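tool_call: predict_structure(chain=1)
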Amino acid sequence: MNRFFTSLAILLLTVSTTVAQQIQWASTVDYQYNQFAEAEYSGHTATGEPDAFPLGFLSPKAFRLKNERAFGSLMLEFDKPQAVQQLLIIESHMPGRVTKIALLDEVGNKYPIYNKEAAEVDERFRTLLISIPVTYYAVKRVEIVVDTESREGWAQIDAVGISNTASVSDIKKSLQEKYGRLNFKDEIFFTAAKENLGGTVNSLFPEAKPIISADGKTLYFARQNSDGNVGGQSDDQDIYVSYFENGAWTEAENIGEPLNDRFANGVCSVSPDGNTLLLMNSYSQAGATERGVSISRKTPYGWEAPEPVVINNFEPKGKYLDFFMSASEEALIMAYQAKDGGYGDQDLYVSIKQGNNTYARPRNLGKILNTNKAEFSPFLAPDNKTLYFASNGHGGMGGSDIFYTKRLDDSWTKWSTPVNMGSNINTPEWDAYYSISADGSKAFFTSRDESSVGARDIYSISLENELKPEPVMLVRGKVFNSKTNEPIMADIVFETYFDGKKEGMASPDSKTMEYKAILSRGNKYRILAYAEGYMPLDIGIDVQSFDTYSELYKDIYLDPIALGDLITFNNILFNKSTPELLPESGTDLAMLETLLRENPNMVIELAGHTDSWGDLSKNFKLSQERVDVVKNYLTMRGIDARRLQAKGYGGSQPVASNATEESRQLNRRVEVKVLKN
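tool_result:
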């Protein structure tokens, strides 16, 4: 820019036709050091709106240093001090040389928010967009340090803006609508500092792969080549566990056999209820391990022997593998170098569940996330959208850095541009394995700095609301026998109400008898509960409106099954006047199938009912045809036909009047009568 701007430059954007967003551009230069000239290329050209177009070329309308190899700085002032959530720097030529940034309040207190080494970047220009927790102070000035001594070049700054807008996407849209392509580079700043978990967790040996439980109270991690490993110091890696009690982490314990053996062991993910662990490697009965992944379930007697997970067409080439399972167990995220395809080194893939412990052919998550270098250590946040991973190929502090991205649809191949987690987490060393609890209050990761106890340690950092994934609800409670009020074991499934999509699974902990599950906001859910010897239960729960992490205590009461009991399925639905099942019947049919599997000695009568309208004989015939279809559905899925008696009753046994359509709908039903149990 080549003139002063003394008035506030405001950029308005209508978001969803109603919300206006503001960006305030710097108006004056408080001081500068080592500018190229007094007019063109001076610090004053970095005030006001962007105008050094076309970007990517040396321009007298943007600030640059006196020499190609030099240090310099700018202190820019804003007309109206304000709270800030976003800082924008238009690096109009040879970006990557901004190394330090600090915000200053009205009395001159300085708050550093950015500290990186100068770097070569591929773009000819970019917009550095730094997100920070909303400042409790009014920002009056911004100080910027430029380093072309380390990375030679005519680096230029065209404009600097601040905004109190939380939405990064809104800012990007408003700027690009007005100025065109700006090549955004997103960064995050934490006000909190990372903390070493200390000597109860970390040791003189390397620690890695921290996985925190949903409630934030159990931490699994791996310790390498420790004399406390099952195979001693020659044992590459064992699983350890620590518990958060009385405000501190307990002394870590080796989790022992059968999860640990003399080979490399590690936890990849833990289910929300804490009863299922996804484990690196495929365990075999011969005591050896192979490349792959396994599952272990918790019992009253401890962890079961791990069972291999089958992934169709899984053909890794390299030796490094990482896995993570979604809360519903429906998606398996993995990082590996494939024999065929891929973008280079380790890539991120997804595999969708096909059956019990079986997953489909992996699909590459695409070039937005994957580079020609390694992407690894995936962690899918409880919101089922925010993916954290480490990368050697996206640039950053050095070594590997931790990034996050957002899933944009259900295809698993459309993602937002990865964002570096910033210098409060990432270092010039190796940083990876990011994990957060359900409430998003703390993140855990592997790093190394001057506070490290050993070669590599586990750290945590507190997260402000602006830096947390989308809020979720932790549903917890107990399952009771409705007659005796005694707690019982059960299987609980959470499905979206309208499309039957599985969102979560849970079972009570064998000691506390409490179940836990995580649900995303914006949906209505069905809770399906099953237990051997009990009637299944189908109840609704609405979690559509909450803005922060929430917890709901929901006890479930199941009725013991007795001979002669009737179970009504109102949502086994058919096309009008035909025995053809409708897709909406899937949940109730699955519920009936599970009831029979949970109670292998049960014999039932499938009773079909219609309303009383129409021809009597046709109604009897239609009701019989419909229950025959249900019987065939169950036998096709392996239920013994000798356990199923099917009988149509037509409209002879109404449960409501036939005067209205609503009451007639109640009469059109399938009932299950328990004949033997």
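agent: The longest strand covers residues 71-82. Proceeding to next step.
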